[in-house]
Amino acid sequence: MVPSESLRHDHNPRMHQGGKLSFRSRVQDPDEDPGDRLVLGGKNPPALRELVPADFREVEIEIGPGKGAFVLAATEAKPDTFLLGIEAAQGYASLAAARLHLSGRRNGLFLVDNGKLYLQDRVEDGELAAVHVYFPDPWPKRRHAGRRFFTPDVLPVLARALRDSGYCYVATDNAGYAGQVARVMGSATDFARDEEEEARVLALGAGHAFSPTNFERKYIEQGRVIRRYAFRRLPR
Fold this sequence. Notes:
This protein has one domain: Vaccinia Virus protein VP39 (Rossmann fold), CATH 3.40.50.150. It contains eight helices and eight strands, in the order βαβαβαβαβαβαβααβ. Residues about 1-10 and about 15-25 have low confidence and may be disordered. By secondary structure, the chain is an alpha/beta fold. The longest helix has 14 residues, at about 90-105. It has an eight-stranded mixed sheet, with helices on both faces. α5 (about 155-160) links the parallel β5 and β6 (about 160-170).
């Protein structure tokens, strides 16, 4: 898939106001070819319906896939589901896309864009079966708290994009942010936490929900507590 615009030199108002993403800036574009598995969204990214082949009825999005471990596992575990990973850091997205291209699987893509904004203005009502958000940046400084993904303004965005009984899956190692996720999602009349679903998808193994991610592997090795949630979109 041909990138729609280069993001290297032009200011892109869609990208996060903290979009330097210094903790990811050390990852440059890989030598491997991302082929047509990478889309540079630019200032006018394509709508989801333009990216998903017509023969896929199940569509899921991961926000912030990083190096793409979950999307890579999910495209293998769920061949009838199309996975779109939306990553703000172009170097990470390119690396992940190269790995997907090398696998030969066609049921996934990586897009460089602002994940929350893409859900808001490029996804149709009820178009998604699931949204995955794993180890989102906690933005620990008080003045940056508004940059978090799970703020009250995300509730109508998720509620509109997810179909009835679709899921928002979340994992974090940050206790403070976990509390915020629980408060924000728990206050929503459109969602309910589903602990049975949390156990079910964990038992299914890699690529269904929560696992694997590079952060998860690192944090498990460090002995950190990982909190996982599944929030079900209630019927309209």
